Recover the amino acids of this structure.
């Protein structure tokens, strides 16, 4: 009787553990089953390379949105990654304990602020700032890049910090013994040794930036056209889905789900490279 | 107490004279950290200063009208969705972690599948969850825009968070606890429920609190699952907006900027409390 209960519970635990397999399978099936038919009805080439998105004329080309996502993400990486890595270096190798006790929760809080709050902050602070200082109407690739650059900071910082901490201290001390200063030793010996971990952080940040939705919608302008300049508005893949899903029907709806499929595949590729990178670090 | 050691400062200065590059690197590191910290402080200060004067009693009226744009229904909806999503995800997540840590044999195909899919779930952006929720819970299951569909969607979203934090908490329980329990004649199940899970509790709780933070801050996954109706729901199948969705609607309509500031304050303060709680509990486990 005892044994029976034990076995039963083990099966319950196993089934709970399989939930994530089931969830991923369901997500794949429902996205692909709804997205692929629309994609083939539009024509795969027309869908991916079409430069026009005009649902009212049944023209669905998502190249503008793909480029939009890529530009905004690239901008975020350019802004967020250097600052993030340098902050991580400070936290891991420079800062005294009493400052670390304050910095760590600060980074956690930066990660915890909801994306609508970031978006709202972007809307009331960064958009007017860009409008007054750089021109344009403020909702632009630049604005979205700055905001996303801030939003990916905590990801870059925490992954880089643990990568830097994972480098054996003997490396650093070896550098000192050869006459390097503290800074030289950290930057030219410890940091290169942590590079694959830091790259993993950057890849994770790319995933965050591509997948970010609400904050981008609020500051990017959302015009569905080919990118026209740093100070012009843009629409990302994520924004495309949220903005039009509310009233879309038939092929239009299918095209939006297909947009989701493209985004999903992007993310899967990014996740895969992230786990490959971290696996290499662990070894 | 910071002791100022003039001799070491002099030595430092001499080093930097000899190697200006080191000084440049130091300044870079310091200014990057200053940018990070000041950005955070600026965001918090800006929202609080602009928002707190806009918090009025009207904002917490029981009924939502287009005059008062009351937060109360949104707060109640948020609470309901948090409770429902946790009810679904917490048992599943804890049981899954128990399986992975206590039962699974290492290097098993199935275990690897579970880990891979959990990692995948953790990386999927919330808009994809929203899209899936719309296709599956709202349309295929026929629940319509409803609290229930929103809660289920978010439950899947927070599952990997709960699994991972529980796993770490379980691994942190020393094996001697388990051995002691076995030595006293307890079987495996009893050991798990009476010894291992209770001692892992602070870690598990900190994961749960972290997921509450995710749910409170979530918008994209809820827009097309729970919908945007600003009312207290009659039942689980009626639509209702959470606080974050409420804030998005307010700021995108552009008519209620002051109220949006106030909502931002409420959200920000909630998230700060949640973070503090989760840190507090996480510290408890490391202290043992």
């Amino acid at each position: 009787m005892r044994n029976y209960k034990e076995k039963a519970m083990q099966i319950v635990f196993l089934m709970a553990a399989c939930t994530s397999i089931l969830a991923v399978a369901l997500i794949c099936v429902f996205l692909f089953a709804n997205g692929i038919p629309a994609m083939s009805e539009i024509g795969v080439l027309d869908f991916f390379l079409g430069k026009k998105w005009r649902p009212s004329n049944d023209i669905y080309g998502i190249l503008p949105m793909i480029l939009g996502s890529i530009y905004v993400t690239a901008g975020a990486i350019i802004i967020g990654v250097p600052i993030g890595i340098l902050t991580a270096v400070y936290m891991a190798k420079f800062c005294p304990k009493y400052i670390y006790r304050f910095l760590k929760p600060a980074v956690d809080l930066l990660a915890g602020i909801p994306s609508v709050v970031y978006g709202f902050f972007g809307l009331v602070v960064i958009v007017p700032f860009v409008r007054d200082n750089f021109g344009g109407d403020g909702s632009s690739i630049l604005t979205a890049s700055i905001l996303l650059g801030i939003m990916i900071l905590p990801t870059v910082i925490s992954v880089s910090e643990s990568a830097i901490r994972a480098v054996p201290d003997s490396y650093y001390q070896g550098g000192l013994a050869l006459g390097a200063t503290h800074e030289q030793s950290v930057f030219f010996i410890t940091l290169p040794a942590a590079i694959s971990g830091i790259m993993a952080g950057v890849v994770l940040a790319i995933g965050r930036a591509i997948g970010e939705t609400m904050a981008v919608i609020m500051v990017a302008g959302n015009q569905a056209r080919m990118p026209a300049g740093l100070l012009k508005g843009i629409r990302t893949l994520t924004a495309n889905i949220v903005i039009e899903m509310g009233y879309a029907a038939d092929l239009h709806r299918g095209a939006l789900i297909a947009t989701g499929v493209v985004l999903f595949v992007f993310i899967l590729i990014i996740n895969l490279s992230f786990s490959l990178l971290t696996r290499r670090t662990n070894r | 107490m910071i002791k100022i050691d003039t001799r070491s400062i002099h030595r430092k200065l001499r080093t930097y004279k000899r190697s200006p590059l080191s000084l440049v690197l130091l300044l870079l590191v310091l200014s990057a950290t200053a940018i990070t910290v000041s950005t955070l402080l600026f965001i918090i200060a800006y929202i609080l200063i602009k928002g707190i004067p806009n918090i009025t009693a009207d904002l917490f009226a029981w009924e939502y009208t287009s005059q008062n744009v009351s937060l109360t229904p949104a707060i109640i909806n948020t609470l309901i969705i948090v409770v429902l999503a946790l009810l679904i995800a917490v048992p599943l997540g804890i049981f899954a972690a128990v399986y992975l840590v206590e039962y699974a044999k290492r290097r098993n195909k199935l275990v690897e599948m579970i880990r891979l899919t959990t990692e995948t779930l953790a990386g999927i952006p919330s808009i994809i969850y929203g899209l899936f929720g719309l296709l599956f819970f709202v349309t295929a299951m026929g629940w319509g825009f409803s609290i229930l569909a929103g809660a289920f969607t978010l439950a899947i979203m927070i599952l990997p968070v709960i699994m991972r934090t529980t796993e770490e908490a379980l691994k942190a329980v020393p094996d001697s606890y388990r051995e002691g329990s076995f030595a006293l004649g307890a079987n495996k199940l009893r050991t798990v429920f009476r010894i291992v899970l209770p001692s892992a509790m602070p870690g598990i709780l900190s994961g749960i609190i972290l997921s509450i933070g995710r749910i409170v801050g979530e918008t994209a996954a809820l827009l097309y699952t729970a919908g945007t109706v600003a009312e207290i729901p009659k039942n689980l199948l009626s639509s209702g907006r959470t606080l974050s969705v409420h804030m998005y609607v307010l700021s995108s309509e552009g008519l209620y900027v002051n109220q949006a500031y106030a909502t931002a304050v409420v959200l920000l303060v909630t998230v700060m409390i949640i973070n503090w709680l989760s840190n507090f509990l996480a510290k408890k486990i490391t202290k043992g």
In short: Residues 88 and 161 of chain A are 5 Å apart (CA to CA). The radius of gyration of chain A is 23 Å. Chain A is about 80% helix and 0% strand.
